[in-house]
Amino acid sequence: MNLLYSCAIVNTMEPQWQTFLEESLWHAKKKGAEYADCRLLADRIEEHLKVENGAISALNSSQSAGFGVRVLVNGSWGFFASPLLEKEKISYVVERAIKSAQANSILQKEKVTLAARAEQWQTGYIAVYQTPMEIDPFSVSLDQKIVLLASADEAMRQVSEKIFWRACEYSAIRTRKLFASSEGVRTDQTIVETGAAAQAHAIKEASGDTQRRSYPDSHLYFMQGGHELVQKLDLAHHAAVIAKEAAELLDAPYAPAGRRGIIVLPSQLNLHGHETAHGLEADRVLGTEWTLAGGSFLTPLLPEIGKFIFGSEKITLMADSVTPTGVGTYGYDDEGTPAQKIPLVENGIWKGLLTSRETVPQLNKAIGYEYFRHSSGAMRGESYGSWPVIRMVNIILKPGKKDFEELKNSVADGTMMFGTNKSWSIDDVRRHFSFGSEIAWEKVNGKWEVRKNAKYYGDNLHFWRNCQEVCNEKSFFLQGVGSCGKADPLQTMHTGHGSSPAYFTDIQVGSVG
Amino acid sequence: MDTQQIAQHILDIATKKKVDFCEVAVFKNEFLLKRLRRGQVDQPPAEESWGVDMAIVKGKRRKSITFDNPLLAERMIEKSLEYLKFLPEHEITLPRQVFEKAQCVANSFDEETALLEDSRLLEVVLQLNSALEAKGLILSGKITAGRGEIYYMNSIGSAQSCVYTLVGSGFFSFDLKDASISAYANTGGSSFESLDLERVSQELISKCELQRQLPKGDIFEKLREGNDLRMDVILEPYFLEPIFDWLGFFGFNGLMVERGESFISKKIGQELLGKNIDISDNPLDSRLQGIAVPFDFEGMPRSQVMLAQKGRIMNALYDSELARRLGKESTGNALPPSQRAEGAAPFNLVVEGGKSSLEEMIDSCQQPTLWITKLHYLGMKHFQTATMTGIAQHGVFLIEKGKVSQCMENVRFEEIIPEALKRVEMMGPSRLVFDPMSAGMPSGTVVPAMKIKDFRFVGSTKRTM
In the 3-class helix/strand/coil scheme, how is A273-311 assigned residue by residue? Predict the structure, then answer.
């Protein structure tokens, strides 16, 4: 698949939506907006199916549509949104946004300025982005989806009587969102995300201990694309594998405690990368996110961007909104900035941040010179009624050279290896973390033995600076996390994460329970 | 159309399509929110919104539907009925009981607050800005106001409704020159009158001033990870609220209990908490200040459900379907139709407190004690023991011999919560903690401050680069 095929200079926007957007901007301009944009959710449909212990426990369809208008008046923001996509609503919604901006300007000490766009928008051009896919998940019959999940469910049931709770899920989302700004930007994007997962829970009747395993991931799993991505998961085969592992975990020893070398597999490392990358969001660095998510330890270090040693030289973290199948991939963000690929950390050095048009001048002021020129295109709102905020795109840990098998063979006895994420917590500036995994292994006499209830914890800079090896692209795993919470009111967003297994030294490990 | 008309309209459509059962919850709300950074409005989200969450049953097949534009109802139901044909059949128990109208929650709606004026929110910000600026502090955080209606109706004749207003906040103060000096406070209720700005202002200023005056320390300065510490703690309601919310959802949720994943699984009736711990789910508690819904999403009127009394576990929470499967009675804790697979949850936890003031708790500390303001990023390390982790923030102080002696670096705890609740030595009066994540439903938690013996810590935030 080639992303270029998904962007085209073909006007797919229906005339009534074009008129709706133009009218919103016309009202905003007439009422005094210096800048305005309108995000119109033409349609968002979702389908979710869940099979638990052989029965369908959830089958839900949902649909959403509406529009939101964001304006700048006297250097202050205003916003209002409505689910009623009626022409008569336009002037009311715009009026409310303008009034909000006027009221907010009473408190405005520094007027909002937007970084210049990187390119000149051609008049009349509507940029189109559509998810490339082979099989539209909404064209796949419910029968087929049920069979897929039921097969995985049955595969788990057959493995062991210790598996007391089996859950398989299938989800598909299609979002069509339109955007227009007073600077002439017009976009029309249709994004399709599809996901499926299986989870096995085992119980030891005598002690009541329970253990769980998930595939492909323990979080709501999504990729951008069609049903073909679910077919590639080979759910039934892997469901049997995780059921076996869950049953084995019941009798496994607890993970040991102490300072160890650890290999972190992508199904855990991706979430570690996610929690770290929150600290690389410009709004957190600038202090907007305290109401929900917190700040960043990078705030006082802004003047050192481009020089600060963030990790070992093995660490290159990219913010990438163009990689195929990533749920952080799109044509344009929610303020009309094109998708792109930028380094956040390059060979260990902190190089970049996820930014918006508003945060670029604010960051440059804090840095002391013009370090950032344009937005990185990371603004997304969960829906038409959400204020768009800086969100992770696809956060990619660049693969290294070592083969995974070679790494496993080369590390010393006592090394721990952490699989699928089970619990997570990190402090408000993204330094002190604690992660638990569903499954772990300890290398004993050259063999990898299963350990349960494992955790690793400590200081995040210490963690990244002690990375000794990142494996090659053969073991690279790109996944979508479907439940990243940010902003206020809380917005949930899908973010993409990719990594290969990596090896870290001098990390504190232990167990819980 | 209002929420009742929409619900009736949807029910009429479903009835015409000959479904055996239909239930529908209609939500309508509007809110304004001011997100603040350095004393000014950084983000002003605001919207009017509708939400329909419904389920239809035909024969032995059930499907839920959610949408946000009432005009989509007919199309969504038609499509769902086509889908329904392909579903395999399974046992479904339809509700038979028609419920009485639920008792209204007192003071849940305020006319003046319902006007949702930007100026009212900004007045609060100006007032706090001015108090903080005089002390060299800057204000961040948020304040929000909303109004809404919820209407539930099903095809056997149960119908419930409520209207509400809410005002919620979460304010942070930062030192102008040193952002590591910070404090947090929240206040809220169903009206602007509920805001306790004097308390908030006092907490934001006094905690920052304490941090300015006191030497800074780190209890893990000379320890590496792996060396755990146990210390007495005074935990403010802001810290305890998320812990009790999680204990409520993961611990008392009937689904988790029956699956063996809860700390009360097979232990109902046992004394798992301290004798001084009483927890209930109670929408009628006056300390909620009107932030409650008086019915669940099967239309059952809600009343107080005792979860723990004198430390003894009394009940888990069930909706009617869970109750039927498990041979229990519904406790009136059904989630909206599309979320039933998640089990049943408390909406208004009330944790009874005591009479000790914060000052009395501080005075009583003979052992070195940590006084902690707020909790960040709670994580469940182990469901069956309710072992949780999280990190302290916005004001951590060391108390030695009854005096606050140092301000401390943020610390990470990892604790078996029910065990910690056996070691509660003192409690303050319980009050509403309300910093809502949305205006979609009025739901708050009433919690006290607690002084707890030997709380376990496993690390701290490092500031060195």
Answer: HHHHHHCCEHHHHHCHHHHCCCCCCCHHHHHHCCCCECC
Distance between CA atoms of residues B175 and A389, nearest Å: 25
Contacts with B67 from chain A: Cβ below 8 Å: 62-64
Residue A2 contacts residue A129 (beta carbons within 8 Å): no
Place of tokens 């009587």: A161
A81 and A195 co-located in one domain:
yes
Amino acid identity, residue B139? L
ipTM of the complex in this document: 0.95
Domain enclosing residue A198, as ranges: 3-250
As beta bridge partners, residue B380 has B388
Phi, psi at residue A30, to the nearest 5°?
-60, -35
Do residues A406 and A430 share a domain? yes
CA–CA gap between residue B162 and residue B151 (Å, rounded): 7
Same domain, A276 and A154: no
Reduce the DSSP state of residue B285 to 3 states and report it. Answer: coil
Nearest Cα residue to A31 out of A88, A74, A85: A74
Q: Which of residues 155-184 of A touch B (CB under 8 A)?
A: 164-165
**pLDDT tens-digit profile of B22-78?**
999 999 999 999 999 999 999 999 999 999 999 999 999 999 999 998 888 999 999
Claim to verify: residue A224 and residue A275 sit in the same structural domain:
no
How many angstroms separate the CA atoms of A85 and A66, rounded?
Answer: 5
Residue contact A457–B88, C-beta within 8 A: no
Q: pTM, whole model, 2 decimals?
A: 0.96
| Nearest beta carbon to residue B376 from set A210, A288, A428 | A428
How big is chain B, counted in residues? 465
> Which of A56, A299, A457 is opposite residue B87, by nearest beta carbon?
A56
Distance separating alpha carbons of residues A455 and A439, to the nearest angstrom: 10
Best residue in B265, B462, B463 for a mutation probing chain A (most A CBs within 10 Å): B462
**What's A239-256 look like in SS3?**
HHHHHHHHHHHHCCCECC
- Alpha-carbon gap: A6 to the closest alpha carbon of chain B (Å): 29
Task: Kindly determine whether residue B458 and residue A385, on different chains, have CB atoms separated by under 8 Å.
Answer: no
Comparing CB atoms, the residue among A64, A106, A257 nearest residue B67 is A64
Residues A231, A279, single domain; the answer is: no
- Cα radius of gyration (chain A): 24
The answer to whether residues A384 and A481 belong to one domain is yes
Non-local (6+) Cβ contacts of B383 within 8 A are: A210, B250, B256, B261, B262, B263
Question: Would the CB atoms of A287 and B37 count as touching at under 8 Å?
Answer: yes
Q: Which chain A residues are Cβ-neighbours of B49 within 8 angstroms?
A: 81-83, 385
Alpha helices by DSSP H, A368-480: 404-410, 460-465
Total Cβ atoms within 10 A of residue A485? 12
Helices (H) and strands (E) in chain B, counts: 9, 22
Helix (H, G, I), strand (E, B) or coil at A426: strand
The domains of chain B, with CATH numbers, are: 3-213 (3.30.2290.10), 216-460 (no CATH)
What is the DSSP-derived secondary structure letter of residue B203?
H
DSSP E strands, B40-198: 40-43, 46-58, 61-67, 137-154, 159-175, 182-185, 188-189
pLDDT grade, residue A338 (50/70/90)? very high
Give the per-residue pLDDT at B464: 82
- Same domain for A187 and A288, yes or no, is no
Is residue A4's pLDDT more than 50? no
SS3 A350: strand
Shortest CA distance from A138: residue in chain B: B83
| Cα–Cα distance, A242 to B145 (Å, whole number) | 47
Which of A389, A427, A506 to mutate against chain B (most B CBs within 10 Å)?
Answer: A427
